[in-house]
Amino acid sequence: MVSSVGLPKKLPLLSHTGARTASTRPHSRTQSAGRRRNEPNRSKALLTGIRNILVIGDLHVGSIYGMLPPDFVSSDGAEKPQNDGQKYLWECWQDMKTKAARFSIDSVVVNGDLIEGKQPKQRASELTLLAPNDQESAAVFLMRDLRNWIEKNTGRQVPFFFVQGTEYHEGRGAEELESIAARVQGANIDSNFSGRHCKEVLDLDMGGTVLNFAHHLGGGSGFTRSGSLDAEALWCQITSSKGQAVAADLIVRSHLHFFMHVEHTGRHAFLCPCWQLQTRFARHRSAYKLMPDIGALIFHVSPDAKKQGADPIAFTKLLYRLPAPRVNQFEVGKKLREAA
Ligand SMILES: [Fe+2]
Ligand SMILES: [Fe+2]
User: Fold this and answer.
1) 144 located within any domain
2) Which end of the chain, N or C, is less surrounded by CB atoms within 10 Å?
3) What is the pLDDT of residue 72?
């Protein structure tokens, strides 16, 4: 059963057909570390009833560094070809879809920054799709394509949950994401937070095991990158003990564009990888430090395991290497280019 916490009407019961280990390709870094680690400790009975949740985020559709479907035709009728980076991301995306289809995906969470937005600060200098309706159309295509692919493989409807990302990208009132989520028929999120088809926070109760999703998390400093994620798990403990929040077994954040996993005795916290190559914003802070991780996460949730005192959370990470950096070859006396 997949339901938003407090949701009066339960979503349809989704059957499970069992998970398999994903294969590896030269450029992919697929690991089921959590799943392999946890599975030997689970009895066969515990392995039944596992729900698989695919989490994607930070696609930044519209950015020259973000996702763009091939053969996209913009609103002026012109074809918008993928640049080299977008071709690479698309190849990784297809590989991710193939690997995700090897599991029986029960639900998808889109954890914010689905589109890039208008880029007022950069004067749209890093946009591949300038018109907001083009960004929306491309994002809707990607979500429908993913949904069709998963539903074709599972043979049943799969709810998509949309979590609001950064205001700079998705609008002050998340109006851009609202429109996309409405067109893709995002699942209802029951909470008193703002938003109709998408919300800032999603608490998902899966038979007593609670998953918490939100987009934002503050970055760390120096060589410490896990501190804010560690703190988020501790704050969950503090606020839930006061009855101010739901005690989550799994916390998922995005926004920082790199993968991270922190585990406490009774709680996991993750940072989700992204689908956008390094931007000018990142390079201005540090060309070396802010390297994104490309990919997605699949969580294998076992409410039965929790009921029997075992860890209900296992995971598969689907990570992809960044394209090889280009190097300028220095040549003495090289002829200058023609002046523009
Ligand atoms: Fe982002
Ligand atoms: Fe963000």
Assistant:
1) yes
2) C
3) 97
